[in-house]
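Anyone up for a design puzzle?
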């Protein structure tokens, strides 16, 4: 007898007409997978038939990627004709009789959705007595609103069965099929009653929460709709009025504001705020009334206010008119864990939807089972293909998801966190394949991912990639990396900077490439403001100290010094002050000039600012440097370590701006300083040019306007009110200046380096503290020590202090600070007095010479110095005139030839005709210097004539002192003078003097001249001398000198013999080389440009003797 599957027959007449004669095989259909009852008895009891099996056991793949167990009527064998129909009520009775309760529930649900309620099923499921347990009374259930009408508590109990089954499963995220349910566990025995009770109570709790959420949602919706309708009316009537805040928005913002106040310590404000909103409970977010989770907080909202979240896509399957939100189950995989009450709703809805889809022969497949939150749906219409066949068919689509990249491509991120995870996985594979020149383009990606990635290990890997992104980063690339590190530090805070960024720096502190170590050094400074203060003053400081002491690259140490300066600007541990001082001294002693410049530009200003805060600038820092300078002085005049003196003095010089700022800030008038609109601007030349912006006093004070006001009050206080109660300025006047002046008096005046260093220091000190301070505080202290006055100028005993370095330092460091007429007159008068006093007292002229050398280096003072010398030229004392003549020698080298011709040479010629022979002799060195430096032929001829008169005039033949001075001058200027002057004037006259010295009667004078001749010939032997001059004058003069030394100084005689032999060999070799050179030149000209080669050879043979003067060492 043919069997009929009653569940393949539609309850609608239309479907019956479409399929009037549908027969089904009695065997189990592969697509349905359920056996039917035995033929002839379609409604036999379970005892008589085979054990009941689920009506449909095949698992359909749900839209959310999970297998949902769905039950469909099994194929039943029914005797009778194919046109026989089975009533719906009969099917329901059989299902209830066979205890297919779940299937009956699904059947009842579909009937409700179709609008055909069956009384039998309605009465059965609405009667609680049908589901009472023997072991106890079932808990009461409130009715909930279902899609088709009121459902009794039986529906919840059945869901409990499913939930209990899932609670004992592996919790892999998929809903178990009804096949997998172990109904024996829900038998009437009491062994498992406690577990069931727990599951029921849990479900009741979740269901109560759902009810509360539903009521709150209804309340929220109603409240918002009322407010919206009223606001829209108001806005339509007055469009210019901004949309007012809604009541629910106000309550939500109130809650967040109160939370912010509490978290940030504004407790009193929070209490006041709560009192003003007494109708709201600020301890419970649910009191707000919004059916949404609590936002993260005001700070998070502020930081992300510019980030627009992606809009949710509303997807609808138009082919079956089903909302995608129902198919996806509201993203069960992600949302069910957040909202416990949602899983029950979704499971029921998904089960109903799957039954509906099966009823219409639709099937859905997830193309990506690896991530259940990312869904891709493919719809197959009205085809009876097995899932295995469909899977095999789709396998011919060339998709690759088994590789790493394939898995990343097939897994599309749908949230910020998943994007960060994806970037964290992909960036390590992307970076090695990007060109080195373009890798800085990856810095934003790496940093954003490292900031937001949830896994510490991945963040560490990303930061490691950042610091190793470029093998040898250039300056621009390092700047990009540093900018990113600072942005990272601002975003994540000090704790993560310490834990994540600093280890990357530590790893590369000894990297083989200096560019990488440079990046580490710069990073330490850039990250200093964002580090915990303990780490800043310990670990980072130690890292930089190690790099400063060990790194061999100048640019790395320069960056270390700058970073140390930044650290000094943020450090607040006073115990680290001695370490900072030692680091300053260590870096000042660095051999690299760029490192030392960085110390003065960054480190010292920052360290002095810290010292000022600690009160140590004038109490400890400056005195400690002065003490170290004083310790250098007792080593002796010639044993002074000028390098160390330069280190300490340059540090003192860099401390002048912060010292003056301290004086201004601690002045009695500071409280009266107020910036006004008519505050005058500061003169550009008021202060020396700062070495860096950090040494600009306006920067130290705060602004140029405030500094201008303070300077006005400062000058007024010094000029009219005095320094009473001004402790910082009194320390400068009473302690700093006297100690400096004492040190100046102890240094060696012949050390031009020391004189220059102290002169620059006093110049900057006086210019910084101002003209009034210089005239009233500095100059009087120097004048008291020098004791220059009219009554002691002519004192024959002289003044010992005038021979010290105090004179040039006062003249060049103090008197030159200001260049007005009265200042220039004071400088001229001081130099004239010093020259007169030293000359009349027969004291050494070293201090005056040092003053002329220091001042002569600046062309602006040449006229002034010539005025001083002219005072000496016309002085009544021959001693003063002699001094003036000797000073011209120092001045000629730096003066331009116009002044030499107009001012120097006339003065020297005037002195050369002086009645006193000593004055005339004193002019010879100056004449020789002119021959060495000037190039004007006329000047050279005038000087040559004057020197010739000294040598050839009979009145000078017996002037031993004059001959000594001329020979000494020739030996000094001869190697650097014009070759013609040397060959035609110097060497012939030396020959004559050597020849005349052979017959000198006085042995002492003879040996004096011989010694000077030996020095002169030794210097001139290094020059290129023509063969004619060598044979006619140089060698004969050496032989004459040899004759004197043979008798007077045998030790010199040996050297002279070797010199004569060398000169003779040179003459012989030059003759041979000339012959060979002519042949070689002729051969080289063959086939080439004769003119070019000839000029080249001639250029090699006519090398100036002035260029060779310093090449060879003097032989002794």
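Challenge accepted. My sequence:
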């Amino acid at each position: 007898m043919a069997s009929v599957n009653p569940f393949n027959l539609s309850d609608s007449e239309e479907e019956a007409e479409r399929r009037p004669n549908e027969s089904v095989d009695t065997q189990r259909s592969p697509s349905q997978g359920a056996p039917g009852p035995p033929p002839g008895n379609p409604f036999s009891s379970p005892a008589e038939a085979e054990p009941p099996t689920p009506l449909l056991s095949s698992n359909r793949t749900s839209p959310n990627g999970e297998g949902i167990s769905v039950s469909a009527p099994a194929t039943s064998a029914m005797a009778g004709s194919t046109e026989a129909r089975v009533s719906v009520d009969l099917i329901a009775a059989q299902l209830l009789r066979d205890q297919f309760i779940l299937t009956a529930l699904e059947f009842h649900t579909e009937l409700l959705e179709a609008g055909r309620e069956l009384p039998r099923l309605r009465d059965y499921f609405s009667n609680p007595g049908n589901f009472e347990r023997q072991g106890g009374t079932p808990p009461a259930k409130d009715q909930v609103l279902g899609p088709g009408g009121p459902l009794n508590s039986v529906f919840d109990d059945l869901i409990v069965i499913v939930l209990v089954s899932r609670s004992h499963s592996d919790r892999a995220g998929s809903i178990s099929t009804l096949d997998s349910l172990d109904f024996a566990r829900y038998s009437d025995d009491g062994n498992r009653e406690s577990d069931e009770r727990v599951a029921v109570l849990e479900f009741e709790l979740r269901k109560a929460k759902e009810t509360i959420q539903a009521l709150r949602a209804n309340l929220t919706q109603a409240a918002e709709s009322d407010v919206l309708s009223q606001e829209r009316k108001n806005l339509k009537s007055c469009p210019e009025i901004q949309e007012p805040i809604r009541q629910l928005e106000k309550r939500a913002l109130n809650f967040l504001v109160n939370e912010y106040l509490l978290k940030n310590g504004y407790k009193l404000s929070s209490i006041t705020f709560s009192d003003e909103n007494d109708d709201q409970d600020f301890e419970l977010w649910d009191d707000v009334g919004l059916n949404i989770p609590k936002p993260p907080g005001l700070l998070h909202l502020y930081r992300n206010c510019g980030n627009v979240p992606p809009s949710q896509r509303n997807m609808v399957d138009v082919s079956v008119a089903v909302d995608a939100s129902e198919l996806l189950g509201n993203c069960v995989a992600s949302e069910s864990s957040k909202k416990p009450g949602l899983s029950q709703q979704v499971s029921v809805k998904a089960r109903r939807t799957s039954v509906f889809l099966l009823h219409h022969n639709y099937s859905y497949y997830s193309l990506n089972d690896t991530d259940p939150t990312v869904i891709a749906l493919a719809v197959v219409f009205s085809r009876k293909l097995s899932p295995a066949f469909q899977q095999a068919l789709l396998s011919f689509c060339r998709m690759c998801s088994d590789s790493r990249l394939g898995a990343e491509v097939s897994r599309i991120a749908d949230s910020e966190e998943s994007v960060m995870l994806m970037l964290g996985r992909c960036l390590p594979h992307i970076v090695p394949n990007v060109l080195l020149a373009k890798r800085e383009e990856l810095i934003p990606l790496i940093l954003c991912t490292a900031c937001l990635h949830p896994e510490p290990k991945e963040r560490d890997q990303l930061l490691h990639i950042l610091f190793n992104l470029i093998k040898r980063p250039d300056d621009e690339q390092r700047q990009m990396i540093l900018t990113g590190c600072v942005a990272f530090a601002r975003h994540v805070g000090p704790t993560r900077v310490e834990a994540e960024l600093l280890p990357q720096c530590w790893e590369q502190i000894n990297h083989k490439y200096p560019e990488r170590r440079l990046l580490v050094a710069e990073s330490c400074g850039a990250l200093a403001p964002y580090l915990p203060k303990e780490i800043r003053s310990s670990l980072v400081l130690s890292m930089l100290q190690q790099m400063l002491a060990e790194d061999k690259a100048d640019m790395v140490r320069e960056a270390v010094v700058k970073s140390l300066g930044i650290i000094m600007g943020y450090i607040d541990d006073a115990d680290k002050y001695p370490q900072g001082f030692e680091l300053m001294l260590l870096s000042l002693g660095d051999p690299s000039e760029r490192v030392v410049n960085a110390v003065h530009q960054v480190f010292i200003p920052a360290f002095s600012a810290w010292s000022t805060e600690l009160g140590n600038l004038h109490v400890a820092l400056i005195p400690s440097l002065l003490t170290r300078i004083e310790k250098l002085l007792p080593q002796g005049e010639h044993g002074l370590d000028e390098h160390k003196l330069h280190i300490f003095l340059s540090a003192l010089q860099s401390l002048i701006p912060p010292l003056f700022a301290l004086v201004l800030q601690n002045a009695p008038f500071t409280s009266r300083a107020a910036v006004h609109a008519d505050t005058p601007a500061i003169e550009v030349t008021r202060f020396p040019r700062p070495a860096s912006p950090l040494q600009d006093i306006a920067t130290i004070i705060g602004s140029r306007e405030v500094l201008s006001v303070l300077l006005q009050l400062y000058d007024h206080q010094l000029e009219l009110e005095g320094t009473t109660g001004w402790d910082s300025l009194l320390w400068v006047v009473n302690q700093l200046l006297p100690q400096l002046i004492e040190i100046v008096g102890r240094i060696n005046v012949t050390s031009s380096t020391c004189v220059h260093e102290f002169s620059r220091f006093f110049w900057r000190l006086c210019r910084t503290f101002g003209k009034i301070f210089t005239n009233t505080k500095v100059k009087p202290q120097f004048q008291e020590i020098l004791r220059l006055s009219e009554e002691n100028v002519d004192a024959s005993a002289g003044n010992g202090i005038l021979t010290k370095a105090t004179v040039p330092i006062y003249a060049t460091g103090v008197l030159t600070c200001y260049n007005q007429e009265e200042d220039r007159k004071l400088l001229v008068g001081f130099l004239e007095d010093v020259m007169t006093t030293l000359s009349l007292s027969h004291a050494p002229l070293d201090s005056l010479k040092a003053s002329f050398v220091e001042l002569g280096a600046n062309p602006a003072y040449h006229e002034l110095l010539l005025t001083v010398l002219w005072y000496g030229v016309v002085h009544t004392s021959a001693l003063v005139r002699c001094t003036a003549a000797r000073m011209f020698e120092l001045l000629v080298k730096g003066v331009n030839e116009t002044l030499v011709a107009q001012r120097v040479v006339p003065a020297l010629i005037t002195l050369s005709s002086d009645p006193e022979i000593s004055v005339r002799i004193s002019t010879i060195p100056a004449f020789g210097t002119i021959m060495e430096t000037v190039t004007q032929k006329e000047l050279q001829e005038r000087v040559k004539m004057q020197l010739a008169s000294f040598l050839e005039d009979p009145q000078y033949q017996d002037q031993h002192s004059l001959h000594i001075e001329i020979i000494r001058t020739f030996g000094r200027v001869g190697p650097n003078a014009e070759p013609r002057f040397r060959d035609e004037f110097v060497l012939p006259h030396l020959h004559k003097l050597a020849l005349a010295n052979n017959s000198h009667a006085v042995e002492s004078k003879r040996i004096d001249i011989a010694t000077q001749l030996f020095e002169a010939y030794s210097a001139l032997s290094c020059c290129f001398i023509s063969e004619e001059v060598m044979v006619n004058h140089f060698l004969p003069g050496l032989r004459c000198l040899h004759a004197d030394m043979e008798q007077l100084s045998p030790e010199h005689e040996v050297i002279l013999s070797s010199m004569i032999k060398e000169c003779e060999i040179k003459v012989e070799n030059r003759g041979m080389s000339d012959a060979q050179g002519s042949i070689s030149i002729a051969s080289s000209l063959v086939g080439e440009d004769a003119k070019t080669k000839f000029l080249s050879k001639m250029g090699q043979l006519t090398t100036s003797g002035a260029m060779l003067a310093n090449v060879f060492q003097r032989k002794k």
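A detail worth pointing out: Strands lie at 60-61, 67-68, 144-145, 150-151, 316-317, 322-323, 362-366, 377-381.
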